[in-house]
């Protein structure tokens, strides 16, 4: 289809330059050769443009130049179409751009012509004006349907935009015209969907649920039919500004709940602001509702073309003079089979579609009629209601009503006012928008200029200070026409006194603080200097701030946790109280302002820092993985916010792993520890064998000290085990180990019973069940964190606790040790005399391994008492056991421990060779038994020399 848009242009003397410029020459008689060359060049340039049209490109804008018109395509390329150097100008220059305004009037270069567009009945498409042979514009007379000559002479190059098509007309040198139709944005639309609407406040309502009765999206509306003519006039205080209006008798109109439709268009790049739209029913009859120029839906994006394809289309009621009755008006919106003007239960609403010049949405929008009722006005929110409809005062003519917000105010300088922020959008709205026909904001010109007031629709902004010292209020007149069920209207003027908040400095965000709750309660606080806020002020602003600041307050927020994603105010959350219950103080009570010396302020002007004193009272229901902030507002005597300081912070507790730092000698960088059992005063007796046990605090670096540092609140940490090998509760050996709690008493040893309940980590002993030492030895037992609460309050997560799971394998330090000759060998030499003493110094005994701790095989009593190692050894008659391997070669005659008090007397084992005739060898077995029922035995070879 696009190919035919440009074919006609090949027959015109139209020049396309290397930059895409079309040139026409009127006076070509003297330069026929140049025209021939232009036509030749034109063919190749048209081919290039044709390829772009075929590729889906379209016209996005038409702009006048000093020689004609420039057409811009959606890929950014542009083409200038001109009249040529010597071409004759039209009445309005070298180029004309024709468009249609909201009332359907033709505009030439944005100036009204008095001619209104006519449409073909069946297709509702606009009939495009033509350039006559005499060079004048011809428009279709809406009454006769025929072309009529206007008084407007056409330019040599013109473009008419209507129904998504840009009609380019070029006057050729011979007086004929070349007409080319080019697609515009409207022609590119492939999808159009009504997704919801905006009310006067700009609040979006989605059409997410279809009406149950008619399977359509529904918007409330109200129908009105004037019982007589009504006139009104709105003005400011001195009458210099006047806005008047009227509704003629028997005038019909529809008021709507929504202020704008929100529509989605595809492709998303299509600029809907240039496309005319209306609402039509399936018979192509327009709804009595006017649609304005679309704007990008700025609730989601803020750019000229809506990147996500969402647009806001303003709606307003058409004023109809040809409707004979209220019933006839209502019948525009539902199929009135009963012809009574009332939508009965068996009657359905009429469905409307959104129509562009070249595309039609689905027929799924209906308007549900509701009766008119009294409307109350508000500004910004429901907390700022204007004078209620029932309390308006009738004034003069019966249609005039006034309201003035002059209620009680403690400030004697001003009437009761509403405070607004500089530059903020303030919106008037109604609780029953369908009862409102028109509305208008008026501000006295003096106030408007001095305060920089800008008005748009039902919104206004106050953009500058006129008197920053006292900041008096000024009146804003909000006028509106309220429709009444009886066919009458009320003209209402509400006077609202507006006062601009005094603001000296924009909000400042201080450096964020990542706080870890301190185990020492009186040190659990942090401060943030306000220097950054003061530095953001100029010298003059700081002087003003110090003069005006009188009060302050602060709020605490959790970032982004409201259902709509906004920040949640948690100022009134209760702090953590005693016994795990919420206390009486609130979160905001943790916040204070302090002087430079750290003392709390008494005057706002002295504030140097924000102090947050958690005091270990941060609520347990406020997550550590969230972000928070304190917002401090400094105010003047009237409550205006002069400046704010925002202190972002996070609250956390130390990682559980910081308490459970594993000993390298036990875990060797893994989670699997090997523990050497040893005897303490809290060991358990199992008959005459001590149950295997291990004090778990020895597996970690300073565990007890970390859990309860000096002057600090203790952290709760408890261990548990299920007592099965490898934690496998299906293991056939059953629960053969458990955890006991160490108890230091005067009784030695203390009787303990191992179990499976949670035990404080600083007192926890992993222990074998009675008679199970042999089963427990060398097996892994899984130890888990059963409970962990930092400073006894803040619980660690299950994931935190699971990450600290570890295993312990218990072994005997004696059994896993070594016995050898002093030089590390397994051989000792003696003479073959009757009896020989092999003294202590000839032997080397160690615990754990060859790298373990040395101990004596023949210790004195004093030596035994001086080291815990000897408490691990079970002596027989106070001595270890040494036996010969073959008493026909070598006999053990005596074992004697070292005797204290005899200098140089060390313990020994006396052996006797049995009649050796030659050099020979004999073996002795050295056995050391431990108190847990295990032993180490080592054969030592004795070399016997003759």
Describe the protein in words.
- With 946 residues, the protein is mostly beta strands.
- 9% of the residues lie in helices and 38% in strands.
- The chain has 12 helices and 70 strands.
- Strands 7-6-5-11-12-13 form a 6-stranded mixed sheet.
- It is elongated.
- It starts with a helix and ends with a strand.
- The relative contact order is 0.05.
- Residues 1-29, 38-43 and 300-306 have low confidence and may be disordered.
Quick structural summary:
The chain is mainly beta and 946 residues long. The protein contains twelve helices and 70 strands.
> How big is the Rg?
48 Å
Number of helices: 12
Q: Largest sheet, described in full?
A: 6 strands, mixed
Residue fraction in strands: 35-45%
Distance between the termini: 124 Å
Q: Can you list the strand order of the major beta sheet?
A: 7-6-5-11-12-13
The proportion of residues forming helix, as a percent range, comes to under 10%
Low-confidence stretches: 1-29, 38-43, 300-306
Oligomer: single chain
Q: If you average the pLDDT, what whole number results?
A: 84
Number of strands: 70
Shape: elongated
The SS-based structural class is mainly beta
Using brief descriptors, characterize the structure shown.
70 strands, 946 residues, six-stranded mixed beta sheet, mainly beta, six-stranded antiparallel beta sheet, 9% helix, 12 helices
